[in-house]
Design a protein that fits this description.
- With 196 residues, the protein is mainly α.
- The protein has a domain of 122 residues: Tetracycline Repressor, domain 2 (Orthogonal Bundle), CATH 1.10.357.10.
- Helix content is 70%, strand content 0%.
- The chain contains nine helices and no strands.
- Helix 1 crosses helix 4.
- This is TetR family transcriptional regulator.
- Keywords: DNA-binding, Transcription, Transcription regulation.
- One of its GO terms (molecular function) is transcription cis-regulatory region binding.
Length: 196
């Protein structure tokens, strides 16, 4: 099982770690993955290269940690009292996260094509995020009787993320409320076996 970017053997002071992750995000947006150097991350974060290498094994691991931090940085998902309301609230929350991530992801697309190991690290560490939040949404739905059993949460999250990335990267249209309602009512609820 892949190790979470948040748990490696060497722990940094949280403020120092956040400064390094923020430097990584800034540099990915400004110069892209290929031109981002550990030297420049260290300079910008006022950290030593030795500190960075004790915490992360290299650039792919650092980038995965930076993106993972963005994924989990959102307000708690709302408990609206209905599955439909919870799904709309969750999709809206993830839309805001994905809008913040878009410039960084765009900078990584070419790098993933030339370095498949980067794609694997990102898949292991970043794409798994969201499952914990979604699990809580579906557990509430089962407890309320909105669903008879919890779905395959990973599959539902994967579909939601694919739709978000398609909208952001290919269509360029806004991740607005009308789109979120369309996704929930026309795709996610039918996927869950809800047809009313």
């Amino acid at each position: 099982m892949p190790q979470s970017p948040a748990t490696t053997q060497y722990r940094l002071d949280p403020a120092r770690e956040q400064a390094i992750l923020e430097a990584i995000r800034e540099l990915l947006t400004e110069v892209g993955y290929d031109r981002m150097s550990i030297d420049e991350v260290a300079r910008r974060a006022r950290a030593s290269k030795a500190t960075i290498y004790r915490r992360w094994s290299g650039k792919p691991d650092m980038v995965a940690a930076a993106l993972h931090g963005m994924m989990i940085d959102h307000p708690p998902l709302p408990d609206t009292g209905t599955l439909r309301g919870d799904l709309i609230g969750a999709m809206n929350a993830f839309c805001r996260v994905y809008e913040r991530k878009q410039p960084i992801v765009l900078s990584l697309l070419a790098a993933i094509r030339s370095d498949p190991s980067l794609g694997r690290v990102l898949h292991e560490h970043v794409l798994e995020s969201g499952v914990t939040d979604a699990t809580a949404v579906f557990q509430r739905a089962v407890a309320r009787g909105d669903l008879t059993a919890a779905p395959n949460v990973g599959a539902v999250v994967e579909v939601g993320k694919a739709l978000l990335w398609h909208r952001l990267l290919l269509s360029g249209e806004p991740l607005d409320e009308a789109w979120v309602i369309h996704i929930v009512d026309d795709i996610l609820r039918p996927l869950l076996g809800i047809h009313h």
